[in-house]
Design a protein that fits this description.
The termini are far apart. The longest helix is centred in the last third of the chain and has 125 residues. The chain is built from 38 helices and 43 strands. It is an alpha/beta fold. The strands form 7 sheets. It has a 22-stranded mixed sheet that branches. A 5-stranded parallel sheet has the order 2-1-3-4-5, sandwiched between helices. A 5-stranded parallel sheet has the order 7-8-9-6-10, with helices on both faces. The protein is flat and about 190 Å long.
């Protein structure tokens, strides 16, 4: 796991050690204290620039330590040169110290020339001359010399001259602006925990167009927590110094809720005009005074988190009141608010690397990932999906916690989202109306990642307004639309939507509107807890156990709109079981019903599909959907694929809006209902694999049908359909004998697939097919009864539209019809497996043909390489065992392509050796070395755009899957690339040659071969580059056993290869024996000859975008193509390339007659298109001399040899060869040598008749070259000397750079220490904030409780006052009233009790 150091991230700018002062002012008090110095100091104070100014009167002979320290502790020193500045020894000591700090500390120095000529300061003239004369009398000359040097150096710096200004105020204004800009470059954006901001910063800055004087408004848009505010803060911090005023209004949404718009507007204008309070609380039409002042001021305004268009209008309804060059930045979550601004910048999620850095900076104080936290960190990153707010919050949450705590928190997040994150994201949801909220929740719970059109149709059927509703969600950054048109939603936002639904009924899922959690859905259905509240259910049945439903499981869910049971993972059987008597009912309000592997034979008898938009029940046990005819006006899609028990489709005559019907794989379906073929809006009909359907016929003309799939309907014999919009027709694998005449009405038909139609007997003979005017793809492969040789392609419409023709395995095809040459647009021709014996010569007219396949054409005997079209890029002739033509001379002009193409650039054909043009090669018959590797001694990077690889594959019953080339340098692997062979290579019955092209720059940034080699550092010294090839078999094993030879061919851009000296150094080491013959042995006796062909030697129509093949030989020299025509193979141009070599030219061995013929047919070297200045006659003369050596050993004809047998001519040529070894330095400086050379050329002129014609023009140009070489060479030498001086200057700069790096290192150490302390303090602050937040919550709760108690008390008091007090008074009155009676009653009661006691005693006594 890589440890990321956050302090070194891209967002952490280089930062100087903190200093006490921003600016130090050096001035002569007597001259400027009361004017420019005081005014400049005041202006800097107003801009909050910490400025040191020494207001003491000068005393003593020199400056004290405090002043020295002040200079050292300043970022910028401003030297105000005045007429008497040099009179002060104190000032002169200051400037010496300032210049010292500039050199040693990188201090910025700004000279200001106030009422004095800068040249007087620079050269110590005028008053300065007199002042220094006085100094020499009292000071030693060394000190005066230091003062002079410091003055001169300071005065030579870029500064400000008052003489060029009319007013002092403007002068000071510009100086302050310059100081602020320079300080802005010194001080970085110091934002805590900011990572990956640079790209966004530069993106917005480019939109601001800072150089323009127009007023521009830029919107920054994105989801909550994505970093909009952070970006705005950075922009303000970096750019504010370029404006005369600036204001950052943070949290506009919250500020307006707390205060009001007048408060915010007053704050805006007060900050821009730098006044405490303007009291702008009147309607905007009445504060003209303020706006008029702003029109004269360039300002920067940042409005952060604007929630509504009204808020934006109230603050800046228009920008007419802002001065030229002003900028307004608005951050918002709602794109609609800023639709009228100049530009909108969308802030995207952080990438993985920046997410890791930001999370580490929040989670680990030491800025590095702790060991053991790698996988846990990855889980957090995956959860946050690049949202900076979530990364920071979770980082702080997990900081300093154990791994067990991390695991617990991550487990908790799966059920309970972090509320700090959710509360920020929910602000956007709270602004939605009820219709928009329902759309949002449906997307979050059910239809995320579905197509926008499909979701729109579904939600419209639910009586929502999705067209504008989805636009609103996009503009509020709640959803996005992908390039493919699907609706996407950030996982955190989806989680927020889930949580909103969860809060509807936290404890009872059955009382929520939407259910998606498998466990909760399982619980609700199993225990029949569903209620009327439920509007939608989606369940991945592969995530739950077997579920047994009851017949009334859905009875209570009468409001359900959405029901989806599907299998996220492949499952052979259904695990939802229904009672045999079926379901009692399904909601009549269903708009979407998807139930995979539905186990019943039909839907509930009471089910009404009136509102249904989509019905999807693939792999079901349905025999029918329902009985009778239902009103299906809303239904748009039906999917019953692979419902093997389906025997009938209902009457769909009332499904007037049905667009897609899929019945693929319904093997028991014998017919389709006639109503289907009368649906006007039906676009796609899929019946593939319906093997019992015998007829597909209708007399109705279908207006909308675009696609018909009847593939493998093996019983289908009758087909007749007409549609103006039909584009694709699959009838492959059917039993039809011919296409019906009705097909003539399908004028937009682009593709017909009839492969493996065994009964098809004809196609194309009927000239009426001419009406099919848009056909681009025709597949007739495997049609055994079709006589493909009689096909007719005379139809003019096809000639311009047909791009792909497939005639593979057509056993009756023995020869292509001559009319094949009329298909001018054909790009792909497949003839594999046919019985063709030769190719039609008219095939060369197919100028757009890119792909030609002839695999297993075992009767193919010959084919002319020269007759193949020049546009060919993929050629395959595998197992053409009867082929006698030599295809090694087939030259495909591989090309650099900026966009992916549907075909590879490759060639494969029978053959047993590497083509001769591959000088970098290795083969089996060599005496030593490997057959699977090649080493190139020097492979220059400049101009290299591609490589052609070659491997010779041996006969094999195994099938190869991939070919791989691994690139090494000195045994270290520096790159690897592979090519797929799955579509090319089958079982090989003989040896084959396989060539393929690799664009070295193609692929992702770190995947391309060029990037791999660059990362390894091999381009710095591209020597000893080895290419090792291997093959992968079907078992996935890699080996080199089946490779009998290999080769590599580099491709170079000609116009980028102007440095031919580098190209000429290209050498090759070939592992094994090289292509050597007597010619090569003879060449080695002479010096190494290198072909030097410039752009001007090519035809003018090729030089604009040409490329070059470098053709080195085994001994390190480069072979020259035998003619410019041969050279065309190595040159890839945008015009028609020369693809094929002449066989005689391609051979290295020629007979004498061929040699004489070649010389006689050599191109005229006096071509007026050649430019003399770009021609090197010495190199060409050397090449021609080399050619003479080539010819001499081979010639037997006396007329050819006699040219060089004359002793005088031979002597002159020998002398000329000796002079050719003379360095150019001598030619340019020694006139005697120059005259000798010219004399020899004159001697050659005397034997003009004995010299080959081809040398005449060379000698003339050579004489011209020698006569002017002195001037040209001197100029070149001077340029080289100048360059050497620049190299010396660069060396000095390098030393300064090393010094700067050392200072930077020290500064970074200080930064690191400061960051550690900062993190410690910040951590403590965060902990205190968390505690404070908790206390605030407790306080607020207590406050609410107290307020509630107070309300209860008031209610009690009211009740007592209104009811209890009156009752109490009545009771007291009655008590007083009945007090006497009460006493009498007590007395009477006492008497009665006594009497009762006496009676009981008497009773007892009398009883005895």
């Amino acid at each position: 796991m890589t440890n990321f150091d956050v302090s070194s991230s891209s967002s952490s700018s280089l930062m100087l050690s903190p200093k006490k002062y921003d600016v130090f002012l050096s001035f002569r008090g007597e001259d400027t204290r009361d004017n420019i110095t005081s005014h400049l100091h005041e202006a800097l104070k107003n801009k909050n620039v910490e400025t040191y100014i020494d207001n003491r009167l000068e005393k003593g002979e020199g400056i004290g330590p405090s002043l020295m320290t002040a200079i050292e502790e300043s970022h910028v020193s401003v030297i105000i040169f005045s007429i008497n500045y040099a009179s002060s020894k104190w000032c002169l000591d200051e400037i010496v110290k300032i210049i010292e700090c500039k050199k040693e500390r990188g201090q910025i120095v700004i000279p200001v020339f106030y009422k004095i000529d800068p040249s007087h300061v620079r050269n110590q003239r005028g008053t300065y001359e007199n002042l220094f004369a006085e100094h020499l009398k009292t000071k030693n000359s060394y000190k005066v010399f230091n003062w002079r040097s410091a003055l001169t150096e300071a005065a030579n710096l870029a500064g400000w001259d008052f003489q060029t200004y009319r007013s002092e105020s403007q002068f000071i204004k510009d100086i302050v602006k310059d100081i602020l800009q320079r300080l802005n470059l010194i001080h970085p954006i110091e934002l805590k925990g900011v990572v990956g901001i640079e790209e966004n910063y530069e993106g917005v800055k480019s939109l601001l167009e800072m150089d323009s004087q127009d007023v521009r408004v830029i919107g920054i848009w994105g989801m909550g927590g994505i970093g909009k505010t952070t970006l705005a803060i950075a922009l303000r911090a970096k750019l504010s110094s370029q404006f005369e005023g600036h204001c950052f209004l943070a949290n506009v949404r919250e500020q307006i809720e707390k205060n009001n718009i007048d408060f915010l507007r007053n704050k805006l204008f007060s900050e821009l005009l730098e006044e405490e309070n303007l009291h702008v609380n009147v309607p905007k039409v009445e504060y003209h005074c303020v706006t008029n002042r702003l029109r004269r001021k360039k300002v920067l305004i940042v409005l952060d988190d604007v929630a509504t268009s009204e808020q934006l209008d109230d603050l800046i309804s228009d920008c007419d009141f802002l001065g030229p060059g002003s900028r307004v930045i608005v951050t918002t979550r709602d794109k609609h608010i800023i639709n009228h601004v100049d530009e909108i910048y969308e802030v995207k999620e952080l990438n993985k690397d920046n997410s890791l850095r930001l999370f580490y900076s929040s989670a680990f104080k030491e800025k590095h990932l702790k060991s053991g936290y790698e996988e846990l960190s990855k889980s957090v990153i995956a959860y946050c999906k690049g949202n900076p707010l979530a990364l920071k919050i979770l980082g702080v949450r997990l900081r300093s916690r154990s791994k067990e705590a991390w695991e617990s928190e991550l487990k908790k997040l799966k059920k309970i989202p972090n509320m700090k994150i959710q509360n920020v994201l929910k602000l956007s949801y709270d602004e939605l109306d009820s219709d928009q909220q329902n759309i949002f929740l449906d997307i979050a719970c059910f239809v995320k990642e579905e197509s926008r059109d499909r979701v729109t149709n579904l939600l419209e059927a639910c009586d929502f307004h999705p067209v504008i509703g989805i636009e609103d969600l996009v503009e509020k950054s709640l959803v996005t639309i992908s390039n493919k048109g699907t609706i996407q939603m950030h996982d955190l936002i989806q989680e927020m939507g889930w949580n909103i639904v969860h809060q509807e009924s936290p404890k009872d899922p059955g009382s929520r509107t939407r259910l998606w959690d498998p466990n909760e859905v399982y619980d609700v259905l199993k225990y029949n807890k569903g209620t009327k509240t439920i509007e939608g259910i989606t369940l991945d049945m592969s995530k739950v156990e077997d579920l047994h439903l009851k017949s009334n499981s859905f009875t209570k869910m009468s409001e359900m709109r959405f029901l989806k049971f599907y299998y996220g993972k492949c499952n052979g059987t259904s695990n939802i079981y229904l009672p045999e008597n079926g379901l009692d009912s399904l909601s009549d309000k269903l708009r979407y019903l998807e139930w995979h592997r539905y186990c019943l034979k039909s839907l509930p008898s009471k089910f009404s599909a009136n509102l249904l938009v989509e019905l999807s029940m693939p792999y079901s046990n349905l025999q029918k959907l329902w009985d009778g005819v239902q009103n299906l006006a809303n239904l748009k899609e039906i999917d019953l694929r692979f419902s093997n028990e389906l025997v009938e489709v209902p009457d769909l005559s009332k499904a007037t809006n049905l667009e897609w019907l899929a019945l693929t794989g319904c093997r028991n379906l014998c017919e389709i209902h006639p109503s289907i073929l009368s649906l006007d809006k039906l676009k796609d009909l899929e019946l593939e694999g319906c093997t019992k359907i015998e007829s597909f016929h209708t007399d109705n003309h279908l207006d909308s049908l675009q696609t018909i799939q009847l593939s493998n309907c093996s019983s289908l014999k009758e087909f007749s359909v007409t549609s103006n919009k039909l584009e694709k027709l699959w009838l492959d694998g059917t039993s039809i004998k011919e296409l019906p005449s009705s097909i003539l009405c399908c004028q937009k038909l682009k593709m017909i697939d009839l492969h493996n139609c065994d009964n098809l007997v004809g196609f194309g003979e009927n000239e009426n097919y001419i009406e099919i005017g848009s056909l681009s793809t025709l597949v007739l492969s495997g049609c055994k009864k079709l006589n493909a040789s009689n096909l007719c392609f005379n139809f003019k419409p096809w000639q311009s539209t047909l791009t792909s023709l497939n005639l593979e395995n057509c056993c009756n095809l023995e020869a292509l019809p001559d009319s094949i040459g009329l298909l001018s647009s054909l790009q792909c021709l497949k003839l594999s497996g046919s019985n063709v014996k030769s190719l039609s010569p008219n095939i060369k007219n197919l100028n757009n043909l890119k792909e030609l396949r002839l695999d297993n054409c075992k009767k193919l005997v010959s084919m002319s390489v020269s007759e193949l079209p020049p546009s060919l890029r993929l050629f395959s002739a595998i197992n053409c065992i009867s082929l006698v033509s030599d295809l090694t001379t087939l030259d495909i002009p591989f090309e650099h392509r900026t966009k992916p193409q549907p075909y590879y650039q490759s060639v494969i054909f029978p053959g047993g050796h590497v083509p001769k043009r591959f000088s970098f090669h290795s083969e089996e018959n060599h005496h030593h070395g490997s057959t699977s590797s090649v080493t190139i001694r020097h492979l220059p990077e400049h101009g290299l755009y591609g490589l052609v690889f070659c491997i010779v594959l041996s006969e094999s019953i195994d099938q190869y899957r991939y070919a791989q080339c691994s690139i090494y340098q000195n045994s270290k692997r520096i790159g690897v690339k592979s090519a797929s062979l799955l579509n090319l290579v089958m079982h090989l019955v003989t040896d084959h040659v396989f060539l393929w092209y690799l664009d070295v720059g193609s692929g992702a940034k770190n995947i391309s071969l060029h990037s791999q080699i660059q990362e390894s550092g091999a381009w710095d010294n591209p020597c000893n580059i080895s290419f090792e090839f291997s093959l992968e078999n079907e078992e996935g094993e890699w080996s080199t056993e089946r490779i009998k030879g290999c080769g590599v061919f580099p491709l170079y851009h000609l116009e980028e290869s102007n440095n031919f000296e580098e190209m000429n150094e290209l050498h090759v080491t070939t592992i094994g024996c090289d292509h050597k013959n007597e010619e090569n042995e003879t060449k080695e006796l002479h010096q190494t000859i290198v072909t030097h062909i410039q752009d001007e030697n090519l035809d003018s129509n090729k030089t604009s975008s040409s490329h070059i093949f470098v053709v080195p030989t085994a001994n390190g020299s480069k072979t020259k193509p035998q003619s410019l025509e041969e050279y065309d193979f190595y040159t890839n141009t945008s015009s028609i390339p020369q693809n094929q070599f002449d066989t005689a030219r391609a051979s290295n061995i020629m007979n004498p007659n061929q040699t004489i013929e070649m010389v006689s047919k050599e191109k005229d070297l006096t071509n007026p298109q050649l430019e003399q200045d770009s021609w090197d006659p010495i190199s060409e003369l050397e090449s021609l001399l080399c050619d003479s050596y080539d010819l001499s050993p081979m010639c037997t004809d006396s007329t050819t040899v006699s040219v060089l047998e004359d002793p005088n001519v031979a002597t002159i040529i020998e002398n000329l060869e000796t002079l050719l070894e003379t360095p150019l330095e001598i030619f340019s400086s020694d006139n005697e040598v120059k005259q000798k050379f010219l004399k020899i050329l004159e001697q050659l002129g005397q034997f003009e008749s004995q010299i080959p014609i081809r040398l005449h023009h060379v000698i003339c140009k050579l004489r011209t070259f020698i006569e002017g070489v002195d001037v040209r060479f001197v100029n070149a030498q001077k340029t080289i000397q100048d360059y050497d001086q620049l190299l010396q200057s660069r060396s000095l700069i390098s030393k300064k750079l090393e010094s700067a790096k050392a200072r930077e290192k020290r500064n970074n150490c200080e930064i690191s220490r400061g960051n550690i302390q900062f993190e410690k303090i910040n951590s403590e602050i965060v902990e205190l904030e968390q505690k404070l937040s908790g206390l605030v919550e407790i306080r607020d709760k207590l406050k609410r409780d107290l307020e509630q108690r107070e309300v209860i008390n008031n209610k009690i008091k009211t009740e007592v006052a209104q009811d209890w007090v009156p009752q109490c008074k009545i009771v007291l009155t009655n008590l007083k009233k009945y007090e006497t009676s009460y006493k009498v009653a007590l007395t009477n009661k006492k008497k009665l009790e006594d009497e009762w006691i006496d009676l009981k005693k008497n009773f007892a006594t009398n009883k005895i």
